Amino acid sequence: MMHLCSKTYHLKKIFVLCGALAVVGIFLLSLRTGLIDSLFNDSTHRIGKGGDFFQFYQAGYNLTQGSSIYLPGSEPLVIPYGAIYKYPPFAAYTVGLVSQLTSPWIAYSCWVLLILCCFVLLWFLISSAVFAVGKRLVPFFLFCCFTPLYIDLYMGQTNTIMALLLCLILISNSPSFVWALSVNVKMHTLLLLPVYIKQRKMKIILYSALFSFLLFIPYFLWHPSDLKYFVEYVFGTPLDYFYQAGNLGMYPLIQDLVQLVTYNTSTIAAVQFMWSIGIVAVSLWVMFTTQERDTRGLLSLWVCTFFVGYKFVWEHHLVMLLPVLAVEYMNRDRRAVAVIWFFLALPTVFWFVDMPIGERYAELQPYLSDTRSILYHSCKIIPLLLLYSSVICRLLNVRFPAKWLAVLLLAAVLFAEAVSAVSLSARDCIARALKCELNGDIPAAHLWYKKAYFINPNYIDGLIHYANFLQEQGLDEEFSKCVHRVYRLDPDNPVFGDLKKTKN
């Protein structure tokens, strides 16, 4: 009997290992063939494969020319495509400069291999530091099937490297250099500062500040005007940038919910700001209340704080959660954490809400009805909130009511879905108008735009779409009226400059 059980376990182990490795194989195959690209917004409606990595490549080229890495000038574009560089300068004068030794596509391929090596190293570090022998099978499967990894590979992002650095921070007694390095890759880990302040680890803070100064400041001494751009990007991003299909954090869901009541942009921004302040306040209270001495728990708290409280949470960011998920899995109800991990590992419902609006640089959000937008934006934030709650309960040494919290969050989302389903909002009308435009049904589109205006004549985003439609149809008089209404309602709207380009 014992022999039979042992044989069954080994067969199960082989099956799980083969399944997990097969998923990673599908990720790699899809990088070549696009097999699963349609499951993700970033691989369907964004700039293209390697788009984020090419930022580093172009920034490295600009450095060799003595040009700004942030503000485009007269230097030629040496990449197939890419966005403006927006990260700390460290990646530009490391990855960017080294990449100049070869072509952009070969450099991207090498970068993908480096990400995979970091992913393998991350697993070995986590499994040896966190998981007991015999308890690694389920985490290994969830680890390998974590679909945000595919987007990290596809975009050529740095989140797997950040996850590795976070893991080193979690297991290190003196993580000064690693922490400073992580801040200079992505500034998200600045949120770990309160932990070291509470524990009075001033040496770690001072050494990290020194390392960061040496890595961060030299570039801005060379290009001081770039510092203003960098600060404005980090702290001053306009409201409409939060509200897009690529953002899976709380900010777009808050906008979905507030828009059921009002389209006032000031109200939306105020609620989003209060949410972030509230999350930080809760995390500070938990940190100073807990008797927990294990630094890993406190660090996990602040990593989760970023995911539920920050304005941007892209799908590839979720890879940074892997060390936290591993720690929680070994310290809480494993079944509950495994379920949370499973839902974070799955793709979003993008495949359900997507529509043929174009493959590159096409924004899906305006085409989503209230109901679909709430469904889409809640599919990752619910497990993120559950993970955040799990960490808080562990630190406060209270039972984690996973089932009740899940039911409560799902009930809240279903209530919002019901409210949006029984009432036709101006945004729903705009979404239907845009769909009609896609299908070439111009008269129907015009009727839906008029209906949106009738329901809410002060819905600025709707007016902007309506104005663009009127201009394309050559209805200059109506277009002019629409433009003037937008101006009266919001003369400082960031897109207003485009509306002023009339045919007159």
Automatic annotation (TrEMBL):
Gene Ontology MF terms in the entry: hexosyltransferase activity
GO CC field: plasma membrane
Bilayer-crossing regions: 12-31, 105-125, 137-155, 161-183, 204-222, 267-286, 334-353, 374-392, 404-425
InterPro entries listed in its UniProt record: GT87, TPR-like_helical_dom_sf
UniProt-annotated location(s): Cell membrane
Subcellular location, principal: membrane
One Pfam family recorded for the sequence: GT87
Xref: Gene3D superfamilies: Tetratricopeptide repeat domain (1.25.40.10)
Membrane topology per record: Multi-pass membrane protein
Keywords: Cell membrane, Membrane, Transferase, Transmembrane, Transmembrane helix
Domain of life: Bacteria
UniProt similarity note: Belongs to the glycosyltransferase 87 family.
Listed name of the protein: DUF2029 domain-containing protein
Record organism: Candidatus Auribacter fodinae
Lineage, uppermost ranks: Bacteria, Pseudomonadati, Candidatus Auribacterota, Candidatus Auribacteria, Candidatus Auribacterales
